Structures are given as C-alpha cells and as structure tokens.
What we know:
This protein is α/β, with parallel strands linked by helices. It folds into two domains: about 20-235, Rossmann fold, CATH 3.40.50; about 240-305, 2-Layer Sandwich (Alpha-Beta Plaits). About 35% of the residues lie in helices and about 25% in strands. The longest helix has 16 residues, at about 180-195. The two termini are about 15 Å apart. Adenosine-5'-triphosphate (ATP) binds next to strand 2 and helix 1.
Amino acid sequence: MTHSLPVPSAEVPPQGGIRVRGLAKRFGERLAVEGLTFDVRPGEVFGLLGPNGAGKTTTVRMLTGLLRPSEGDAEVWGHSVTRDGESLRKVVGLLTEQPGLYDRLTARENLRFFMKLHELDEATAWPRALHYLERFGLGGRENEACGGFSKGMRQKLAIVRTLVHDPRVIFLDEPTSGLDPESARTVRDAVAELASEGRTIVLCSHNLSEVERLCERVAVVRRRLLALGPVRELRRSGQALDVRVEGDAEVFRPALARLPFAPNVLLEGGRLRVMLADESQAPEVVACLVGAGARVHSVVPSQRPLEEVYLDLLKDGVA
Length: 319
Ligand SMILES: Nc1ncnc2c1ncn2[C@@H]1O[C@H](COP(=O)(O)OP(=O)(O)OP(=O)(O)O)[C@@H](O)[C@H]1O
C-alpha cells in the first residue's frame, strides 16, 4: 500500500515552539539525519517516531544544543541551535533514555547538583523540585540515596530533574519505559498538564498506543522525514472496509484484485478487510463484490491502528 507523504507545513510557529529547517547530521561517511523540516507549536505534544537507528536521538541532540548540525538550522523557542547554544540550554529540558543519576547521592543532592550545573537560584528551583517530587509520588523520599530507588522511582526522579529549570520545550525519550501502569499514567497525565501550560513537548517513543493517546501530531523518520501530520490523518491514510459476506469470503478475492486500484485484502474471522487509499473507493469495492455475486451482510468502515500504518510507512518509505 502506498501512502502520500504529507508535505511539511511552511507555517512558522507564532511564538515559541520549534522550527526545523533542512537539518542534517553526518558522522564520517554515515548520514544519520538528512533534510529534516518541520514545526512544533507551543502547547503541542509532538511524537518523533522511527525504528532503531532512525536518527531520533541525533535529532534531539541537535535540537538541545548537544550536537552541531552538519547542515540546516532549527529554532527552539526562538533560539537558534547553531548560534545560541548558551541561551538554548536554559529553555530546553531533556530526559534521556538512561536516567544518569548519582547512586551515592540522595534525590535532593542529585537535584541540587543539576541546579548548580544550570546556575539556578536554589531559592526558586528547590520549591519547584519539591512540587514535582510530590507530583510524581516521591514526596518525602528526597533524603534517600538514589542507589536504593527502584527503576521507576529513578525514572520519575530523572523527569523531575528535567523540569527543575522550568523549561519551555521538553524532549522526552521513552519517558514511561520501565514504569508500572500506574506510574506510567502519572507521567502521561503530567505530560498533558505540562503541554496545557503552553510548553512544547517532543516525545520519542516506540510505544505507539502511548503516542496515540498523547500526541496530536507525529513525524515518522528514518534518516529523512517519511511522514508528518496529525495522528488521525495518518490513521485515515490507513482506512479499511470490513465486509461480511454470505458463505466463503475467499472466493471474492480475485474479483477485488481486478479493481483498477487492486486493494490489499485480508481475510479476518470470515470477514474481508479491504484496505483503501481513500474513502471514495468504498462504493466501488461494494459494487465489485455484488457484481461478483456476493450477498453482503455488512460493510463497516474502520481505521487501522497507528501501529499498522506506521509499519506500512516504514515498508514503503524510501530511505
Ligand atoms: N556519535 C556517533 N558517531 C557515529 N555514529 C553515530 C553517532 N551517534 C549516532 N550515530 C549513528 O547515527 C544513526 C542514528 O542513530 P540514533 O541514535 O540517532 O537513532 P535512534 O533513532 O535514536 O535509535 P534508537 O531508537 O535505537 O534509540 C545510527 O546509524 C547511529 O549508529
């Protein structure tokens, strides 16, 4: 199945947000990221999806000023990643895949260490840290050494650390990885809350149901941009018709294959699942089945889960 790739919008975020233009990164001979162009709005939770090695971490490292782009530029809350490294650091928060905490230090000491690194005024930063410690269920545990914390507690403390300098743009790499369902829910709720305060959130995740729940729009990358758009539009590109016919549905496959757009057809639980490029193909599918002698019991339009659409994109995308 082929997917039309939505054209990146040329729209500039009104204020804040992220504006990426032609971003590329080369490591020696290897081109890890090529020609990325997209915008993320303030208050938006944006998903950055792609398989292992697709260039997501490299992109995030460029957008947080940790890695210099080979080509292109990006503005993060008005700060250029190529020219404004120092001021950029103040507006971005980054949760990396590894929490990177000092086991011998207490939670409080870990946070204070980070505050010093960011030259934060502790009198304002510590109450903020306490607020988030409470928010993530770590209230009262701040004087315990991190070495004794569970994986989930460490992850939550790492999220608190990401927030102590009150960043406008927050990059979260697999934020709920290793969390139990209740803690994962707490983190998801907090992400939605942070966005509702007008911050921009970029979420890298392989958990597509989480992405579907949290993100309005996603970019699918594999070195380059494979698709960009609202989750519901990407899913629309994965529309299907579930058709129940009398008798053996399999016999109608050849007739469907002769349609000019030759749709992919799956047989699921005695039903035909006919993949559509767009909904205008639906009447032709039904007419074709009736013309081939099918007695049609029901026709139900359905959307495929984001996961299926995503896997198709990776299969079809040229990288
Ligand atoms: N410092 C580096 N030096 C050389 N190559 C690198 C470096 N960092 C990343 N790469 C390469 O760039 C490509 C993209 O890697 P990256 O870590 O950005 O992918 P990713 O999408 O974050 O993957 P994952 O989902 O596994 O975390 C890979 O081929 C990787 O080997």
